[in-house]
Every structure is written in structure tokens, then in C-alpha cells.
């Protein structure tokens, strides 16, 4: 069957219903909480990536595979006999990593379990740290009774030579090596947000719905990054995965697996099928189809996301937290515009933020937009404080001044997008262009600080001024300090930095301060804002709020 005919049949069987309707009503039941499981897997992958000992020597992985095959799988098989559900035990990190990688090849894992244990061995659904600690401790107790001569932790000497000749399962070694950098694909901080994972689960169910209605002879379907996260999470619970997808066992192999090479035709065909099924672009913010050297979807954000478990604002309350999000706008011409394509060459889309500098404008000509497919027009990183974005459809006129006429507008507010299904909303502008805006959940980002010059201050921290002099009943102000105000991204004063450069008194007149030696110059950083007494005249915050120290370098 040709790809075109296949796509047409898929389109006709779905009658263009929304993704939320299909994912909630017509798809099969998922027996595991994929949202909680995905959060747990992201944390697990980060732990594996941070465990350098697990990757620094090949012999460590070889030993982990031996422990997995000879010790762990027989143990968990015997424990599973006592109950239909997997027992609440978890192996040590090295074994769990091998087990996780093995489960990402369901065909190989199922054959392995059938040949060795005559049954499929599952994994317990444990999602919180307290239960994980209990499951690990319980496993350690059972392990010690069953294997008194085997250490529970992997204690192999990483300095030993690589024992290639004793590797008994080369396929499993290949699977583990293939997934070594899997954490990098899901390291962006917004992927751990609940709202992102809920949207990813909805799209994953829609993807399985698309796969369920596929027929033989089509190209393999390629998952986006969010769908890939849900897919490998589903696979990591083998018995659940097999039970949930038993009715489409023959179709599930039409998916591109992790690490499999992907060609352009497969990607384009998947995008077309998704568009025909849900009338939405397949790629969205946080769910791209960027392909790296081995053909696996990877993160390609517009900015570098800093990942940190520490928020400095918990200590320094003066700073306003900063939240960033990704936004992606996909556009296509309305079908009614095809006949008049020649008449819209002077029309263009202008993108603005709801709250931003007035000169921030980005334009895109309507004539450059595709007729029959979605086109990613903008992929940006924005501040949550900008509230949203606005698209204007304009017509560029002729004449000397080349004035532009506003034809229509469409506004996408961040709060509306966060409440929308799959974190995406669609609009139509001027009966000409269809627009779908999608975002990622806002996450706290690094702070942006700016230092601006301020007035000279005295030893007490008050600005040198006639106003201060009058308030002090004309008592002279002593000392000279250069002052700078530190502003955060919202323009809020959060620190006052001062450096002592001179001594002497100032009353009113031309008193000249005396310079201080370099070793006597003091830098103070005071947390908080100025206490203004008159317009821009004020006093610095109390010094006890922060610290001061001597410096040996020039300001």
C-alpha cells in the first residue's frame, strides 16, 4: 500500500477529533501512573549520569551484567512466584541500570525471560523516596541471606583489565552502552514538571491511537521527545507494558526504538499522519524531533537551561525569582487562501510580547508560509513576566511612507496556554493563517543582575546631599564611598555595593576628601534597597545584612 493511500485511510477513520477527546475516551487503559513513573525515571537517569564509577571503566558494567544475570534475575524470579504482582524490592544501582536498559528492548527482554524463567518478570511501581529506601533495604536483607558470599554493592576494582573474553551476553552489553547518554535527552528542567508530564501522557496516548489504526506497509512512526519519555517509561515496566499493548502486539513494532537510525521520510510521514489525525503540528515546544548523529530525538532548546537543586533566593529574599519558558509557533495557510495565494504577498505576521520593550518585533511574510504543512515560524525563550505574545496580521502598503495596515490580531497568554490541553492553543488570523502556539511550563532560571552607578555616600551609608545635611542639623558627613545599585531582571533594587575611596568631612562647599590607601579600601555589599528620604536621595540598607571585606585590587 502506498504511503499516500495509507495516510488517506488513516485520516478518514479519525474524523478530525481533538487530541484530548481521543486520548481520554477512545484509547486503551494504561495500568501504571506514567506521570509519577516518568518523574521517577528522570531522577533515576540523573543519578546514573552522576555516578561516574558506573561509566569510568568497562569492567564495572561487565560485572553489573554478571550480577544482573546470575544473581538478580533468579532472585526476583523466585520472589515473583509467591505473588502475581512484582514484590516491593529494588536492586542496587548498577543492577537496576542494566535491568532498565534491558527492558527498553521488549522483544529481547521477553525472549530472555521466557527462555530462562518461562514467564515475563515485571518491575514494582515505586515512585517515592521513602518506599524506594524501604524496597532497597528489604532487597539487601534478602540478598544477604541468599548470597552470603556476594556483596550487595558492586565492589569490582575498576583498575582491572577489560575482561572482554568473559562477556557472556554481548547483546545486553550493547543495550547498556547504547543508553549511556540517555539522561542528556531528558535533562531540561521543565521535563520534571507535572503539567508537562500530563501533556506528554496525553500525546503518548494519541500516538498509540495513531499506531493502533495503522496498517502494514507504512513507514515506522518516529516519537517526539515527550512521547519518547512516556514510551521508555512504559517499557520499563515490562509486565504492564505487555498487558496494556497486548491487543496491538503486532503494531507496536512499527515504532522507531531508542537508538535506531531514523531517515527523513519516516519523520515526514509521521508528521503528516499526526496532522491529518489531530489537525495540529506534530512538533511543539519541549517536544521536538531534532536528530543527532545516531538518529535519536534529542533536546535542542533555544537557550542553555541551567539545572540546579539549589535556589539562591531562599537565602537572599531581595531578588525577584525569574521564570523562563520555551514557546513555539507553528503556522500554515488556511485552505481557503490557496486560490488567492498571489494576492497575499504584501501581508506579513508581526510577533510582539504583551509586556516587553516596544521595539521587540519579529516579522514573517505570509508568502513564505507553506500551504499544505505546518511550518515552525518561531522558537523562542521568553520571560513568564511578559504575560504572553501577540500576533498581528498586517498589510504593507505602497507609497513613499510605506505605511502598514493592521488586518487582525491573535493573543496567546501564558496562563491560557498552561491550562490548555497538551499546552497548546490554535487561532486563525484574518481567515488567512492558522497558528498553533505551544509552551513549556515556566521553570526558575538563573538571575540577571545589572549594576548601575549611584550617588556618593558617607561612612554611615547616607548619600552626600544637602537634604541629608539638613536632616542631620548640618552635622558634617564624614567619608567618601563610591556606590553602585544592583538591579534584578525586574528592575528591582536588590543590593547596594559600596567602596571606600576617601576620608574627610563634607559640610557645604568645596571640601576636598583625602584619598585612602589601597589596602584600606573596603568593599561592602548590602542586601536590600535604598531607604529614600527625598526623591532619589536616601540611605543604604543596614550593613549587618550582608558582609564586608578588604580587597587588594582596584574598583
Give an overview in words.
The chain has 555 residues and is of the alpha+beta class. It contains 15 helices and 17 strands. Strands 10, 11, 12, 13, 14 and 17 form a six-stranded antiparallel sheet that branches. Strands 1, 4, 7, 8 and 9 form a five-stranded antiparallel sheet that branches. Strands 3-2-5-6 form a four-stranded antiparallel sheet. Helix 1 packs parallel to helix 13, helix 3 (34-50) packs across helix 10 and helix 10 (194-212) packs across helix 11. The longest helix is centred in the first third of the chain and has 24 residues, at 58-81. Residues 1-16, 292-297 and 545-555 have low confidence and may be disordered.
Write the layout of secondary structure elements.
Blueprint (H helix, E strand, L loop, with lengths): L2 H12 L4 H8 L7 H17 L7 H24 L11 H11 L2 H12 L11 H18 L23 H9 L3 H4 L8 H19 L12 H11 L2 H7 L19 H15 L44 E11 L13 E7 L8 E4 L9 E9 L4 E9 L7 E10 H6 L4 E6 L3 E7 L3 E2 L5 E4 L12 H6 L5 E11 L5 E14 L7 E2 L6 E6 L3 E4 L2 E3 L7 E4 L5
Antiparallel strand pairs: 1-4, 1-8, 1-9, 2-3, 2-5, 5-6, 7-8, 10-11, 11-12, 12-13, 12-14, 14-17, 15-16
Helix pairs in contact: 1-13, 2-10, 3-10, 3-11, 4-5, 10-11
